[in-house]
């Protein structure tokens, strides 16, 4: 019997698989058993009601999706009165995700939504779809620390810092979030990108710039998880291009304690429970009794070869 449980700080998850924020909705409960997930991470909410960006919002490629949604939000009251009661009946821990226009508003929103049924709050400081050429809190190290500190002051819930990969030294941002009190690091969100429709001579997204997700980004985020894991002592949750159990195990070996699966949920809604099953089989095949022992277990050398240093 494999022990699939993992701990994200004080929070114990039945297994390491959860959705990326914004990539599942209530309808998924008709297709998979949400209690089979390690956690249920909800769509980011904002203090105000928002429409989101102009359409088209999605451009698809073979191994990646470029999207610009812009955090459409029904606001915190809808969240408390409708979204939370729906998900609150599952035994999988529910993780809220918040975003705001100012550091102070992150704190105010975190305090407002800190209902008993919420197990943790993720700070979406990394959304690349807001205006101002995609610049986000997470691209500024002081703003990153400021948001986490404001949320920690405002709520007793564990705070997860979801970093943006659109920075040079991701480990420095992870360290700043840890020092500001983050209970876990989520690495990370989508990579800024753009697509042009040559025939129509115009951008393929209404917002021009969007976020790239899916299999194509996996090597980039995997590298970042490895670097973050070397920089901080708090748990890392890997996210980026994870489509199956094998991808999840790769992230864990590179240093992640748990993982989030995003775009794949739109393509294959059964992907998350299948990944849980695959990981269990992998552990059995490799004689791993506790899935948490996979975290950081990657050997850093190939037998007989000199150890190579990763350089920036
Ligand atoms: C349609 C869509 C909506 C998303 N909405 C959010 C969101 O509200 N908040 C957030 O933090 N990330 C959001 N994301 C980012 C995902 O949670 C995840 O970080 C990203 O897609 C990378 O993972 P993937 O390659 O597995 O998709 C969204 C992604 C997609 C594709």
Automatic annotation (TrEMBL):
<keyword id="KW-0288">FMN</keyword>
<feature type="binding site">
    <location>
        <position position="124"/>
    </location>
    <ligand>
        <name>substrate</name>
    </ligand>
</feature>
<keyword id="KW-0285">Flavoprotein</keyword>
<feature type="binding site">
    <location>
        <position position="124"/>
    </location>
    <ligand>
        <name>FMN</name>
    </ligand>
</feature>
<keyword id="KW-0560">Oxidoreductase</keyword>
<dbReference type="GO" id="GO:0004589">
    <property type="term" value="F:dihydroorotate dehydrogenase (NAD+) activity"/>
</dbReference>
<keyword id="KW-0665">Pyrimidine biosynthesis</keyword>
<dbReference type="InterPro" id="IPR005720">
    <property type="entry name" value="Dihydroorotate_DH_cat"/>
</dbReference>
<dbReference type="InterPro" id="IPR012135">
    <property type="entry name" value="Dihydroorotate_DH_1_2"/>
</dbReference>
<feature type="active site" description="Nucleophile">
    <location>
        <position position="127"/>
    </location>
</feature>
<dbReference type="InterPro" id="IPR013785">
    <property type="entry name" value="Aldolase_TIM"/>
</dbReference>
<feature type="binding site">
    <location>
        <begin position="262"/>
        <end position="263"/>
    </location>
    <ligand>
        <name>FMN</name>
    </ligand>
</feature>
<dbReference type="InterPro" id="IPR024920">
    <property type="entry name" value="Dihydroorotate_DH_1"/>
</dbReference>
<feature type="binding site">
    <location>
        <position position="43"/>
    </location>
    <ligand>
        <name>substrate</name>
    </ligand>
</feature>
<dbReference type="InterPro" id="IPR001295">
    <property type="entry name" value="Dihydroorotate_DH_CS"/>
</dbReference>
<dbReference type="InterPro" id="IPR050074">
    <property type="entry name" value="DHO_dehydrogenase"/>
</dbReference>
<comment type="function">
    <text>Catalyzes the conversion of dihydroorotate to orotate.</text>
</comment>
<feature type="binding site">
    <location>
        <begin position="43"/>
        <end position="44"/>
    </location>
    <ligand>
        <name>FMN</name>
    </ligand>
</feature>
<dbReference type="InterPro" id="IPR033888">
    <property type="entry name" value="DHOD_1B"/>
</dbReference>
<comment type="similarity">
    <text>Belongs to the dihydroorotate dehydrogenase family. Type 1 subfamily.</text>
</comment>
<feature type="domain" description="Dihydroorotate dehydrogenase catalytic">
    <location>
        <begin position="4"/>
        <end position="269"/>
    </location>
</feature>
<feature type="binding site">
    <location>
        <position position="21"/>
    </location>
    <ligand>
        <name>FMN</name>
    </ligand>
</feature>
<feature type="binding site">
    <location>
        <position position="214"/>
    </location>
    <ligand>
        <name>FMN</name>
    </ligand>
</feature>
<protein>
    <recommendedName>
        <fullName>Dihydroorotate dehydrogenase</fullName>
        <ecNumber>1.3.-.-</ecNumber>
    </recommendedName>
</protein>
<dbReference type="Pfam" id="PF01180">
    <property type="entry name" value="DHO_dh"/>
</dbReference>
<comment type="pathway">
    <text>Pyrimidine metabolism; UMP biosynthesis via de novo pathway.</text>
</comment>
<dbReference type="InterPro" id="IPR049622">
    <property type="entry name" value="Dihydroorotate_DH_I"/>
</dbReference>
<feature type="binding site">
    <location>
        <begin position="240"/>
        <end position="241"/>
    </location>
    <ligand>
        <name>FMN</name>
    </ligand>
</feature>
<keyword id="KW-0963">Cytoplasm</keyword>
<feature type="binding site">
    <location>
        <position position="162"/>
    </location>
    <ligand>
        <name>FMN</name>
    </ligand>
</feature>
């Amino acid at each position: 019997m494999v022990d699939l449980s993992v701990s994200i700080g004080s929070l114990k998850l039945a297994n390491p698989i959860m959705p990326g924020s914004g990539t599942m909705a209530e309808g998924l409960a008709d297709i998979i058993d949400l209690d089979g997930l390690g956690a249920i991470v909800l769509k980011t909410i904002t203090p105000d009601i928002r429409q989101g960006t102009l359409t088209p919002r999605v451009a698809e490629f073979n191994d990646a999706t470029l999207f610009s949604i812009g955090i459409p939000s029904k606001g915190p009251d809808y969240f408390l009165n409708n979204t939370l009661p729906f998900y609150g009946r599952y035994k999988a821990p529910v993780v809220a995700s918040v975003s705001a226009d100012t550091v102070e508003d992150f704190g105010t929103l975190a305090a407002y939504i800190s209902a008993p049924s919420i197990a943790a709050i993720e700070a979406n400081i990394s959304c690349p779809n807001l205006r101002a050429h995609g610049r986000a809190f997470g691209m500024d190290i002081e703003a990153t620390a400021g948001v986490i500190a404001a949320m920690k002051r405002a709520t007793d819930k564990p705070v997860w810092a979801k970093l943006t990969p659109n920075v040079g030294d991701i480990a420095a941002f992870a360290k700043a979030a840890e020092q500001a009190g983050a209970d876990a690091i989520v690495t990370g969100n989508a990579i800024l990108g753009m697509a042009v429709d040559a025939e129509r001579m115009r951008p393929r997204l209404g917002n021009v710039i969007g976020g790239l997700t899916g299999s194509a980004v996996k090597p980039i985020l995997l590298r970042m998880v490895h670097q973050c894991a070397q920089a901080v002592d708090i748990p890392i949750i890997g996210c980026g291009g994870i489509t199956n159990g094998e991808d999840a195990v790769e992230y864990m070996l590179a240093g992640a304690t748990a993982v989030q699966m995003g775009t794949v949920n739109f393509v294959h809604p059964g992907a998350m429970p299948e990944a849980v099953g695959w990981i269990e089989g992998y552990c059995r095949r490799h004689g791993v009794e506790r899935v948490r022992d996979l975290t950081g277990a990657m050997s850093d050398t190939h037998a007989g070869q000199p150890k190579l240093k990763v350089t920036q």
